């Protein structure tokens, strides 16, 4: 495989967009029903990740479920188990920078615990899913039949091998 920086950057952007799409949908489902107005505050401000309120638990659940969804996205965007940790760490580092720009340095222990747990879920589940795909058996029954037909003089009309005289 050739090193292609444009492919890597496009995979990072695609994975980041899919992650925020899943996070936004989960926030709308879990948090949007509990608050009068859902804003970017719930995605990027560390103060919303709190175990003291029911809404805070819904935000935490949305982040952890989005990490699981991110692992599923990795199966299709990244496709390689050995790259899952790198892409998951990149996603969470970019998320950290966005959070710093949006609301300052995350001073909440809960924010760090949830995001490190999300990183672990995304990378480990992503690796597991990719490994399962990589180790899936390749069906060779059709391959054997096609090789047999190429190596012999198969008569399609009669459905048998012709004998050479």
Largest sheet: 2 strands, antiparallel
As residue ranges, the low-confidence spans are none
Structural class: mainly alpha
Determine the mean pLDDT: 88
Indicate the percent of residues in helices: 55-70%
Radius of gyration, in Å, reads 24 Å
Strand order, biggest sheet?
A: 1-2
Quaternary structure annotation: single chain
Beta content comes to: under 5%
**What is the N-to-C succession of helices and strands?**
HHHHHHEE
Basic shape: elongated
User: How many separate domains make up the residues?
Assistant: 1
Distance between the termini: 48 Å
Q: What is the number of helices?
A: 6
DSSP, total strands: 2
Question: Care to describe what's here?
Answer:
With 165 residues, the chain is mainly α. It has one domain (5-139). It is built from six helices and two strands; from the N terminus they run ααααααββ. Helix 1 packs antiparallel against helix 3 (54-77). It is elongated.
How would you summarize what this structure contains?
This protein is mainly α and 165 residues long.
Descriptive tags:
single chain, 165 residues, mainly alpha, two-stranded antiparallel sheet, 2 strands, transmembrane, Protein SYS1 homolog
């Amino acid at each position: 495989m050739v090193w292609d920086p444009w492919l890597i950057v496009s995979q990072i952007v695609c994975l980041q967009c899919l992650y925020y799409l899943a996070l936004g949908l989960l926030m709308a489902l879990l948090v949007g029903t509990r608050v009068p107005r859902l804003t970017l505050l719930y995605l990027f401000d560390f103060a919303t990740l709190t175990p003291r309120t029911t809404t805070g638990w819904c935000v935490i659940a949305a982040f952890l479920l989005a990490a699981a969804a991110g692992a599923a996205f990795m199966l299709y965007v990244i496709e390689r188990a050995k790259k899952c940790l790198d892409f998951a760490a990149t996603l969470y580092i970019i998320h950290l920078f966005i959070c710093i720009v949006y609301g300052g340095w995350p001073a909440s222990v809960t924010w760090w615990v949830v995001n490190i747990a999300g990183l672990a879920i995304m990378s480990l589940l992503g690796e597991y899913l990719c490994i399962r795909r990589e180790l899936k058996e390749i069906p060779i029954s059709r391959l054997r039949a096609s090789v047999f037909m190429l190596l012999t003089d198969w008569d399609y009309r009669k459905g048998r091998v012709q004998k050479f005289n």
